Amino acid sequence: xxxxxxxxxxxxxxxxxxxxxxxxxxxxxxxxxxxxxxxxxxxxxxxxxxxxxxxxxxxxxxxxxxxxxxxxxxxxxxxxxxxxxxxxxxxxxxxxxxxxxxxxxxxxxxxxxxxxxxxxxxxxxxxxxxxxxxxxxxxxxxxxxxxxxxxxxxxxxxxxxxxxxxxxxxxxxxxxxxxxxxxxxxxxxxxxxxxxxxxxxxxxxxxxxxxxxxxxxxxxxxxxxxxxxxxxxxxxxxxxxxxxxxxxxxxxxxxxxxxxxxxxxxxxxxxxxxxxxxxxxxxxxxxxxxxxxxxxxxxxxxxxxxxxxxxxxxxxxxxxxxxxxxxxxxxxxxxxxxxxxxxxxxxxxxxxxxxxxxxxxxxxxxxxxxxxxxxxxxxxxxxxxxxxxxxxxxxxxxxxxxxxxxxxxxxxxxxxxxxxxx
Length: 422
Prior knowledge:
Layout: E1 27-30, E2 41-43, E3 47-48, E4 55-61, E5 64-69, E6 74-77, E7 80-83, E8 87-92, E9 97-102, E10 115-120, E11 123-128, E12 134-139, E13 144-150, E14 163-173, E15 176-185, E16 195-202, E17 212-215, E18 219-226, E19 229-236, E20 239-245, E21 253-257, E22 265-268, E23 275-281, E24 290-296, E25 323-324, E26 330-334, E27 337-347, E28 354-364, E29 375-381, E30 393-398, E31 403-408, E32 413-420
């Protein structure tokens, strides 16, 4: 859903795209001297997907891919067009376009905010991620099924006494999905305080737990869940916070986490409920910054070597050889570890001109910090050293025998087939 996950100008998540078409094979290479392991990741040439542009999000549904992108429908706000992000397109598992449907504003009148996309039995669901909490169902062909369900009551814009849903972060786990929701009194001003509640719903929108109040001041909630464990992350007072609800526990445990003022992105490290956190480590006089990440224990506390307290030492991007470029990077639990997709601005080989270098990085999951685990980094450039667009978005679509890397920008959507030897 809006996810990335965990990584350097933000993480969980996801982004990339090419600024122009190119021909010839993609140039592949390892991360260079100091790479923890030899690369076992291979990539193909990028292929343009129809006329799709402005990808926002994507997920795997069965043996297909559903891409959400910009609609043709817009409203004018302060003299500028604001588009609905409700075009849903179905691709096969190789990235070939099968169908596309532009829902415009039919899913929510006038709504130009984000949506969470989460898999569900027989298809997927979408939940408003900003200003509201409508739940919609779609089948595996991205066809709308039934009407909208409000997970929390709607609040009239004229109300000054009721709390309205403002932001949502969510993740599927077993028989439903967890939703971390901020609420505020209306009208919203620069002094508005947002409370944060965590609740599990079934796929029909029924509450499976009470909505637990986990913060009285919170922004930008994100959620990871697996194996009956849920981890929520948010910003509070300029710092990162976590709420860990371990399987079988009666309520969440709250912790602060030193992310240097950057957004923490929870990530499920495996299907058994092991959790981690990614964030954008900002450059300082003592740290180069980059993609950061740590494993957390069952109480939500960061797992660090004895005596280590500075999380800015947990750099995952040390072997990426460049400055991380995109504001959001895509990360998923995969094959016993985590798989990250992003890009850097740097030199592909010594002496090469500075430009865009794409990065696929796999990290093993163990008992220690993510930065101490086995790493497998693949760096490559697009044919002709083509530059990425100004706002690239990456999404990894992971299947059992291969992955499809989606790269989108305002002009086009491209796919790269990825295979791993493990």
